[in-house]
Amino acid sequence: MSIDLNARIPNNVDLADDRRLRRALESWQPSFLSWWKDLGPEGSIDYDVYLRTAISVEADGWANFDFVKMPEYRWGIFLAPPEEGRTIPFGEHKGERVWNEVPGEYRAPLRRLIVTQGDTEPASVEQQRLLGLTAPSMYDLRNLFQVNIEEGRHLWAMVYLLHAYFGRDGRDEAESMLERHSGDPDKPRILGAFNEETPDWLSYYMFTFFTDRDGKFQLSSLAESGFDPLARTCRFMLTEEGHHMFIGTTGIARVITRTCEVMKELKTEDPEKIRAAGAIDLATLQRYINFHFSVSLDLFGNELSTNAANYYTAGLKGRYEESKIDDDHQLNNDIYKVILFEDEKIKQSDQNALLAVNERLRDDYIADCQAGVDRWNKILKRNKTDYRFSLPHRGFNRSIGTFSDAKITTDGQVISGVDWSKRSRDWLPTREDREFVRSLMTKAVIEPGKFASWVAPPGRGINGQPLDFEYVRFH
Ligand code: BYC
Ligand code: FE
Ligand code: FE
User: Domains in the chain, start-ordered, CATH in brackets?
Assistant: First the structure.
């Protein structure tokens, strides 16, 4: 696995020996850079940023920290090392050698999975492009840029697969990745959550907690793929994903910590007083949680999906931690308990496990989100506050799946459309909430070691650096 770091496109896929592929990627590169200039992080062009760059795919070498001028960052193509003798872990080809070429019969669904995955990466960069202008600290600004850079690299990862394995259609799809745009009414991004705005830093922390976490689960399922280049690409992407979710988990924890401090100082839990002191009240945080959780649940697709069953049977997309599951990994005769909205009621029933593969992944995701909420609640407990955060019911505010026909409260009651329009403002961020949150973030806090009023400093700096380290040099 040699890594060519001096190539125009750093890579460990022997691009130097494949002239055609190298040419194809080099001709896509200027489109990517021009997209980055137009829709990448606003105002970042001349900054030197303390970034982590992958220089090796081995455990000790993929995190190399140094100052990088942002547009000169070297987006590279890195696959995790191949596993000797790897076989397809699930589906009807279970036990056969993994594929290193695309099987003709699975070309269309495989391309579709890769395109859907790839589309989310630049979408998130577009959603986050203005956040640098209102960063709560230099530390946060650096973290934002780190995520943006890596999501850009994740796009490269999928574009590499399209160019290397899908010929002309793949090259066309790679072009289209830069033509769809988040929130564009004519050419939107493929999945719903990636057309929502990320207008403020609270939304950003929520996004990295809830939506990047969908990335963790989807990438983990694709990392099981029988198409080995996809599996290896996703395995390496997952190493980067941890930091994205860290930003969300700790970001929200820092907001909670700050709010608790203000509540203690003022000896009150009155939202108005907390807001007046420049912090975010807990009920507003809960409404943001409700929104981002429900929008992210939609990313798992329908509860019962023949697409998902076909991907599984074909060996293209597995389950989360497939190899740790104790069953036949084919699921022809298995059942799985699924919660659906049927006959105006929420009902749990036994369903064909193959059709329920999306739902199982959603269940795994919900459990992971709950663990994060539990950690936030510990902060509340430590501060002797009675308030507790919770995840809303899975049917709340859904647009995909059986619950899209229903109006469900956060605690799982079925209500009428009329009731919903009266009460939903208690559950989802209102216009006033959003305006208030934005009013806290009118300009960036850029002095090293300083933090905005609404968020506590993190426990430690990046890569062992102090909190007042100059993570971004503006010049
Ligand atoms: N919005 O059979 P179904 C990340 C469509 S995040 C719009 O249930 P399937 C990241 C669906 O396409 C990870 N449309 O769907 C995070 C289908 O269309 P057709 C992203 C939707 O295919 C943060 C129809 O509804 N990766 O990496 O089983 C920052 C029937 O649906 C939606 C992936 O998603 C939706 N939410 O499951 C940066 C992995 N949901 O056939 C990055 C690849 C469903 O009727 N994608 N539809 O035209 C997949 O595995 C699947 O496409 C899905 C959907 C799980 C998304
Ligand atoms: Fe990503
Ligand atoms: Fe991510």
Answer: 82-473 (1.10.620.20)
